[in-house]
Sequence to fold (338 residues):
Amino acid sequence: MPTWDELQQELQTLRDSARDQLAKATDPDALERWRIDYLGSKGAIKDAMARLKELPRETRGQYGKLANEVKNTLNEAYEQARSATVPAATASTPAEDVTLPGRKPRVGHTHIITQTIQELCDIFSRMGFEVAYGPEVEDEQHNFIDLNIPAWHPARDPLDNFFIAGCGEDVMLRSQTSTIQIRVMEDSDLPVRVVACGRVYRPDTVDATHSFMFHQVEGLYVDEGVSMADLKTTVEQFCKAYFGPDVATRFRPSFFPFTEPSAEVDILFHMPDGSGKWIELGGCGMVDPNVLDAVNIDPETYTGWAFGLGIERMVMRKHNIHDIRTLYESDIRFLQQF
Ligand code: DAH
Fold:
């Protein structure tokens, strides 16, 4: 049985020779071989530890302590050597080739709704309409009162509108672009012939066909002798320009407080199975005399018509989009198709 001195000597020799070997292991492969030899599961430290059980009780404690110290010393030395050695992969990576062509910055494009608004403004400009704008934050005067929508009308229910708290009684997000009709008539000389596109807000529950925010295109024409025939022709011509020359349009009698008579506009959409389906695009009609009165235009001399159509509806039909939410999710994979 070796004496304690001899055992101590053995452990010290192991430590010193391990350090010498480590100093020579300068590349990652050599370092790994060293680790296996000394710290591995069948390495020298493991063997030294295994001797513990052969030793007499009296030397076991001392031996175990020293062996542990050696083990820790070698572990530390190994970690140090490893962090100082450059990994093989990086070491052998070729230098950057500065002659390669650069990466092209990706240029985005406008959103399909913006593109459509531009297209609609274009089509109506060609028909002699000016483009008008109006604020999205409105008051009840422009959103309802001047549009002949009485206080009891369900469209004025506070639960169906976004009123803005802390800004006074009647500040709201506009629920329709018809507000722009009022603003334009307040500010312009007659005749007026304008088209206006923009966002509108209603607290609808979001699903595949509804959103709390969507876009409308509004048209307004006021002059002497303006008739319903002009309205029908303009809307039909517009639908042909946007959807293609074969599109069929129909006008259904309806009611809006700000037009009399009023109609709803549908287009006939050809389904993939060959069948036809009427899709409602929005409303239109002859501007109600009360609306002209509200903006000091004499309804005895002037007549006008107006329409308001849903832009998402048109976009979804034209581009075969089935879920309105995809238009607002900003998923590049979806948007870059258009
Ligand atoms: N503002 C109406 C809506 O949001 C649509 C509309 C109907 C607009 C008739 C008009 C119109 O200009 O004449 O439901």
Remarks:
- The chain has two domains: 4-90, 112-335.
- The first strand starts at residue 130 and ends at 131.
